[in-house]
Amino acid sequence: MVQQVTRGIKISVETSFEGTFYRSYKMQYAFQYEITIENQSKDTVQLNARHWTILDALNSVETVSGEGVIGYKPVLKPGESHTYRSGCMLTSPFGAMHGFYNMINLNSTKKFKVYIPSFKLSAPFAIN
């Protein structure tokens, strides 16, 4: 598990390998990640958007941006957390992801970024 705290918001990430699939006659490697967003600050915050950079061992880079996380824009009061699962497909058995969430402090209406720590994606059969 990797963790990082930005402005009182703690991000924890766990990953797992889900298997291999063929898509458009190419081998794809499926990964799942579980993210917990914990509000350790004294203010109520809301996650509005996400931005991801997804890298694989074949030097492919994909950027993904969008509103919320899996259809939600969670509001977190002090001490609350939100956990969700999502996934990605890579064209190699190794990769990494990192990014940030755009959030707003609902007490002060100030917007800020919360950084998602870089985490590795690796298929266990490919590790030597």
TrEMBL record:
Pfam families per UniProt: DUF525
Superkingdom assignment: Bacteria
Segments forming domain ApaG: 3-128
PANTHER family listed in its UniProt record: OS05G0170800 PROTEIN
NCBIfam families, per the entry: PRK05461.1
Protein's UniProt name: Co2+/Mg2+ efflux protein ApaG
Organism placement in taxonomy: Bacteria, Pseudomonadati, Bacteroidota, Flavobacteriia, Flavobacteriales
Gene: apaG
